Each structure stands twice: as C-alpha cells, then as structure tokens.
Amino acid sequence: MRTYFITGASGTIGSNVVKALLEKNDGVIAATRHPEKSAALFGDKVESVSFDYDDASTFDHALEGDGIFLLGPPLYSDLFNLLVPFVDFLVSNKYSGRIVYLSAYGMDEMEELPFHRQMEDKLKASALDWTIVRPGFFMQNFGNYERENIEERNMLFSPAGNGKTPFVSAVDVGSAVAELLVDLNRSKEIHILTGAVPYSYFDIAEILSDITGKKIVYPNPNDETYRKVLKESGAPDMIADYMLPVYRLIKNGIVEETHQGVQELTGNKPEELRVVLERDFG
Fold first, then answer.
1. Which residues of 109-128 are buried (b: 16+ CB within 10 A; e: fewer)?
2. Bridge-based pairing state of the strands 190-193 and 129-135
3. Residue 102: beta bridge partners?
4. Is pTM beyond 0.70 here?
C-alpha cells in the first residue's frame, strides 16, 4: 500500500483529497497544524501528524510519503516565501515522490499576487517530480465564507461585477488531486479544474433564492464599496487588498472559460453548482 502526505488535511480541499485516497485504500499521513482536527475527521484511518510550514522540525514526516499534496493557507499573500523552506527541504533530501501543488486558475497572470506563479516556476526549475493543478473558484466558498450574508442578510457581497466563472466543487478537486498522486504516468503536467457551466453572481443569487425560499440579491458592489464595508466590519485592510484582484479575474472575464480537467482525470462529470448549493443550504 502506498502512503501520501497531505498538507491541510482537515481543510476543505485537503479533507477531500484524504477522502478520495481512502476510497482507493491508500494510506494517508494527514498533516496539519492541529492534528486533533484530522483525527476527529478520520480517526484511525489516517496517521495524523503535526505540520507547520514555519517549523522545519515538522518536515521529516513528509519523506515517508510516496507523494505529497502541497497546499498553502488561504488569504496568505506571502505564500511563496512561506512554502520555500519546505520545498527546499524536499530538494535537499532528494525527495523522489510525486508532488501535486494546488495553484489557482487565472492567478498565473496576476501581477498583484504573484505567489502561485513564483511557486510554479520554482517547482518547474527543480529536480522534483511536480504536477500542478489550477482549480477555479470553489463552489463550497458560498457555504464557507458567504453563509452569514446569505442566511442573515439575504445577499451575496462580492465585487465580481457581471462576470461569469465555472465554479468547481472541492469534491472534484480532491478526486482529481488523488488521481494525480497515484498515477505514476502523470508527471510535470498542469491541469485546470473547473465546473461545466460558467455562472455570474446574479445567476447564483437566483439559484440561492430558489433553494432557500428567500429573495437573495446581489448588489454588485464596486471596489470602493467592498473595501469600505470590509473595513467597517473590522476586517484588516489586507483582506480587501487580497480579494479585490482575485475577484477581478471574474469581473474581467479572465476565468470564464470551462476546462475538461475534472472529467479527464476522474472519469466523471463535474458536480453541478446547484447540487452543491442544495447540499450546503437546502
């Protein structure tokens, strides 16, 4: 049985990678800053270990994995410098297993937040066996980050304009990453993972209205209004600094195109947005 080292194993994407690997009867080393969380999720089905990119003493367990899922924390603008010591550790130890890096659809073109492009370039220039996935915006983000707005204020509040994007399910991303870890014939590839249909936030407000039985609106805030509201709610300035260029990917049509990566890797059609929203809000 092969064993895989999964960073962020208790989070939205990492936990779905773990589930997909367990379904294949593979071994998992669940690596998180709080291993009790992964232990609560998966019990003795996985080996839960402490792992922190800021603590090199936690790196050794990674060498036990036949493959590594490399995932950085969300909303971290200095992600490249955070991950570099761990990647350098793997290089210096001549790690030979597959590394699947979670990048993001469209962010290789983003000058304001260059960290994904920098890490992709670093992996490509190394002797490591890398593969890169660039998922689109996650369908589960509405339940994870917009729930209070949706359930208490009957609104979506994201500065995405009239743009559309093919949101992707975290379940599909987890399954695709698992395939890339276990398939030894896949090396040095880049896969864009999206859903099958692009939606605007106006479309999603209509779907949520139907699901919840309440009128959900999308006021389409401009950048200034979005920044002001976040500041008034107590959010640090760095949240708006991070999220505004990310949402411009949708607003400017950069991430509207659909891709076949999910079906090519998993053999299954991508989950539909309505199905995920019904699961989260129905």
1. ebeebbbbbebbebbeeeeb
2. parallel
3. 133
4. yes
Is residue 59 within 8 A of residue 53, CB to CB? The reply is no
Beta strands in the chain (DSSP E): 3-7, 27-32, 47-50, 67-70, 98-102, 129-135, 164-165, 190-193, 199-200
Angle at 133 between CA 129 and CA 134, to 5 degrees: 145
* CA–CA dist 120, 132 (Å, integer): 7
Q: How many angstroms separate the CA atoms of 8 and 14, rounded?
A: 5
Per-residue pLDDT of the chain (282 residues; tens, 9 = 90+): 899 999 999 999 999 999 999 999 999 999 999 999 999 999 999 999 999 999 999 999 999 999 999 999 999 999 999 999 999 999 999 999 999 999 999 988 789 999 999 999 999 999 999 999 999 999 999 999 999 999 999 999 999 999 999 999 999 999 999 999 999 899 999 999 999 999 999 999 999 999 999 999 999 999 999 999 999 999 999 999 999 999 999 999 999 999 999 999 999 999 999 999 999 998
